[in-house]
Design goal:
Largest sheet: none
Helix content: over 70%
InterPro entries: Na+/solute_symporter_sf, Put_Na-Bile_cotransptr
Transmembrane segments: 7-29, 35-55, 67-88, 100-123, 130-153, 165-185, 206-225, 231-254
Number of helices: 17
Structural class: mainly alpha
CATH class: Mainly Alpha
Keywords: Membrane, Transmembrane, Transmembrane helix
CATH topology: Na+/H+ antiporter like fold
Order of helices and strands: HHHHHHHHHHHHHHHHH
Distance between the termini: 31 Å
Protein name: Bile acid:sodium symporter
Number of domains: 1
CATH architecture: Up-down Bundle
Number of strands: 0
Strand content: under 5%
């Protein structure tokens, strides 16, 4: 019982809630907002630089040959998820309102996670090399595909005046360029990065918290909590739960239907059902502005915590199931 409670209230979740409360009560304004905006840009660049430096080419080679699995995971991430979001529009638009629905649709076009997808796959006894390759490729492709899907499906623009292509160019410069630079320098800094993975993982969380504070501060100043009621938050949480349940069922069914092994099915479930907060929060900062930014982040923050809790329980179940199968053989 304590373990499940701990899933609900891990350290990062508690700090995230504290940051949300701080942004609500003490939002950054004026020169303070300008300072945090500049700091956020630098933190995002450093975050993606380190993501590039962490990516091992050996891991890419080891998993890249499993193209059927990768195509299915990418299809779930960048096709199935967006289609579910679009199909639910007649229900979600009147239920949540336009801004929160746009946030749900933004959630649906994001790339998958890297660290947690690999960790859950390993715990469950899945195909870890394939998970490393699939998750890393999803993160890279998402830098281009997510802004493109936002431009095609959502018809919103970050700067309220520039073209969709300029938004794609801006996010590529802010995210893809540091990523490529980091990966190109891996021969020089890769050993140090691998040695300090635990410490560097805190960079992800710190960057997320910083962007959340900066983004929510701007939205609070714009009147976020006057437009998003407690009832709307409750309904949004239910929508995120339902969306995750549908995707988990579909990824599990697709893995079985295409005849993948048990290990590959596990990889497909965890790789195809998760959405990245580490990538999504900086992207929202680039793609959205003004009153749209806060509602764009809320579905992602809620979905992220739910997916961690549910997938942790599922990974433990898969592990026990695998141990039972081994004992039976």
């Amino acid at each position: 019982m304590f373990g499940y409670v701990r899933l609900l209230f891990d350290n990062f979740t508690l700090i995230l809630l504290a940051v949300i409360a701080t942004a609500t009560l003490l939002p950054a304004q004026g020169q303070g907002a300008e300072f945090f905006n500049g700091l956020t840009v630098a933190a995002i660049a450093l975050l993606f630089f380190m993501h590039g430096a962490k990516l091992s080419r050996q891991a890419i080679i080891a998993g890249a040959t499993h193209w059927r699995l990768h195509l299915l995971v990418f299809g779930c991430t960048f096709v199935m998820f967006p289609l579910l979001g679009l199909a639910a529009k007649p229900l979600l638009l009147p239920l949540l309102g336009e801004k929160l629905y746009m946030g749900v649709l933004f959630l649906c076009v994001l790339p998958g996670t890297v660290q947690s997808a690999i960790a859950f796959t390993a715990l469950a006894g899945g195909n870890v090399p394939a998970a490393v390759c699939s998750a890393s490729a999803s993160s890279i492709l998402g830098i281009i595909l997510t802004p493109l899907l936002v431009a095609l499906l959502m018809q919103v623009d970050a700067s309220e005046g520039s073209s969709p292509l300029s938004s794609i160019g801006a996010i590529s410069m802010q995210l893809l360029l540091p990523f490529v630079l980091g990966h190109s320098l891996r021969p020089l800094i890769g050993r140090w990065v691998d040695k300090h993975k635990k410490q560097l993982s805190r960079l992800d969380q710190t960057s997320i918290l910083l962007v959340v504070y900066t983004a929510l501060s701007a939205s609070v100043v714009e009147g976020l909590w006057h437009t998003v009621s407690p009832m709307a938050l409750t309904l949004l949480t239910g929508v995120c739960c339902l969306l995750l349940a549908v995707v988990l069922l579909l990824t599990a069914w697709l893995g079985r239907s295409f005849g993948f092994s048990r290990e590959d099915q596990i990889t497909i479930v965890f790789g195809g059902s998760k959405k990245s907060m580490a990538t999504g929060v900086p992207m929202a900062q680039v793609l959205f502005a003004g009153p749209l930014l806060g509602p764009a982040l809320l579905p992602l923050m809620i979905f992220h915590q739910i997916q961690l809790m549910v997938c942790a329980v599922m990974a433990q179940h898969y592990a026990r199931q695998g141990a039972g199968l081994t004992a039976t053989d």
